[in-house]
What we know:
By secondary structure, the protein is mainly alpha-helical.
Amino acid sequence: MSTGAGIDYSVWDHIYVSDDEDVTNPYVDSPSLFRMRHRARLERLAEFQQRGEDLECNVLECKRQLEEAQGRLRELEEGRREGEEDEDREAELKKVQDEVKKLKKDEKSFEKMMKEHRREGKKLPWDVDSISKEGFSKSVLNIKPVTKEATEEEKAEKHKTFAEKYAKEIKHFGMTRRWEDSQKYLSDNPHLVCEETANCLVVICIDFEIDEKHALMEQVAHQAIVMQFILDLARTLKVDARGCFRQFFSKIKTADEPYQDAFDHELELLKERIRNCAQIRKESAMKELEEEDRQERLGPGGLDPVQVYKSLPKEIQKSFDEKNVRMLQEAINKLDLDEGKYHLKRCIDSGLWVPDSLEGDGDEEEEADEDEEYDS
């Protein structure tokens, strides 16, 4: 059947759409009979499809064997051309030639059977099982997926990667002053609306406070509170923060006194925390610097010369101040033997006194005399 427009509908002339196409008697034809007919048709269809799959496998296997036989045939023919002729080789050559002919014949036979099978498939009537095929299948369950909480190492790595990638954009947002400019910048860069941006802004604030750039610290702290209020609003509404930051700006522009006071209060608290953190970092840095200086000052015995000097008696301190060896010897001689040895050993271990030194008014002979006095 066709229409004047040239569309051919003949493919729809023999559609087998139901099991009850014949005249049935409700007292004879039961539902179980319909199910039996449907099952029989499915079995015939499965058998037909299996026969086609078997034919395809036979064709592929025949082609594989034919390629192997042709390879052996080429090797034997090359050997004969090179002069390697004997009765066994000739017999093998004839056997392979016969095998190639047989496989070619089998290949043609299988291909012919495949064509006939395809023609039969096209002649099969369509039914409710074959009239269409499922394009895709997808099931969607409205269940919130269980997300695994990230470890501290993973959070730190994520923060580091984000800060390195968007450092310039984050700093630009931190320097933005007007509400309209902040909203427009976040609209152009919605990926900045996240917890990592708030954390990066706080880190920038601490760096400014350490460098004593207080005005810049306060400006960036203001933007950090802006980002924190956006995130809090998203958690309250249970939506993505990138979809609700405009609501925050609309609210803050026309905010009532309690909301504005809450914003200012959080801002002051953040500034105070930043100042405390900056002070702690300064003190920590000073301690590290002092420790490095102390490590550099340590003498050969591992003692700090500054601490050892402060623990010495006044006369010994004076002899070191004047770099007078004779005065040092006299000051040590005035002490008890054990106490003198104790202070002398600490001076040597800290590097204040070098036994082989010739500084001051003393000489090697005086040092030797001093050693003899302590040995006696």
